[in-house]
């Protein structure tokens, strides 16, 4: 069996239930992306895209062979949005890094206007996601819609360098863990716990960086 076929078909048993190896591998790439993101490395984006592709195939059993009997279209859909927003983040961080900024992104708090914009966008996205996911027959559409919406907002916030994006991820993880456990996506549920703890550390790290860099360049003006 070649490596690609092995990755696409291999399973392991966790808590008495079959789990796809590609779900585990996809989450490992996701964690690596988060680690690179905390260190403000451009590599966070392409590494994350690889994880997105793998995880997309995990949550749509109607298209790909999966051992679970529940389709989570919100989880699958967020992988698509992740990949698209990651292309934007990749370009933005790469551009900033090569303009002599020293780092790919400078963490900052979102302005009041930007927070209100994110809130408004979040409400609209949630409403759309809920009705679309319900129509598709996604399991737990109200929770799946929040995970999808929060994930989009958090990824966009990371691309813009908003310190708050870590807190949005925590809110996503709080909902995601019980949903994924009930649906028997155990590796993803476990990684959500790890992500939640990691996001707390990431938030503290970016907050400190923001304070340090702002103190070093008090004359800097942030352009939204």
Name its key features.
224 residues; mainly alpha; two-stranded antiparallel ribbon; 8 helices; 2 strands; 72% helix; globular; disordered C terminus; Nicotinamide riboside transporter PnuC; transport
What can be said about this structure in brief?
The protein has 224 residues and is mainly alpha-helical. 72% of the residues lie in helices and 4% in strands. Strands 1-2 form a two-stranded antiparallel ribbon.
Could you explain the architecture of this structure?
This protein has 224 residues and is mainly alpha-helical. It is 72% helix and 4% strand. It has 8 helices and 2 strands, in the order H-E-E-H-H-H-H-H-H-H. It has helices spanning 3-9, 21-38, 44-56, 73-101, 112-136, 141-160, 165-182, 186-216; strands spanning 11-14, 17-20. It has a two-stranded antiparallel ribbon with strand order 1-2. A hairpin with a 2-residue loop joins strand 1 (11-14) and strand 2. It is found in: Cell membrane.
């Amino acid at each position: 069996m070649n490596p690609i076929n092995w990755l696409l078909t291999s399973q392991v048993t966790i808590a008495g239930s079959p789990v796809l190896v590609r779900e585990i591998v996809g989450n490992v790439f996701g964690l690596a992306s988060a680690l690179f993101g905390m260190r403000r490395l451009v590599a966070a984006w392409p590494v994350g895209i690889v994880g997105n592709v793998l995880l997309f195939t995990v949550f749509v059993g109607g298209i790909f062979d999966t051992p679970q009997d529940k389709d989570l279209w919100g989880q699958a859909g967020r992988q698509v949005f992740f990949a698209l927003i990651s292309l934007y983040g990749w370009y933005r961080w790469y551009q900033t890094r090569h303009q002599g900024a020293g780092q790919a992104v400078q963490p900052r708090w979102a302005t009041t206007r930007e927070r209100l914009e994110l809130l408004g966008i979040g409400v609209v996205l949630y409403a759309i996601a809920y009705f679309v996911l319900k129509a598709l027959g996604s399991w737990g559409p109200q929770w799946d819609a929040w995970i999808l919406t929060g994930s989009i907002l958090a990824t966009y916030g990371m691309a813009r360098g908003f310190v708050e994006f870590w807190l949005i991820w925590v809110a996503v993880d709080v909902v995601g863990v019980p949903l994924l456990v009930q649906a028997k996506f155990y590796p993803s549920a476990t990684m959500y716990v790890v992500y939640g703890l990691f996001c707390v550390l990431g938030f503290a790290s970016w907050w400190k960086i923001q304070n340090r860099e702002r103190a070093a360049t008090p004359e800097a003006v942030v352009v939204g």
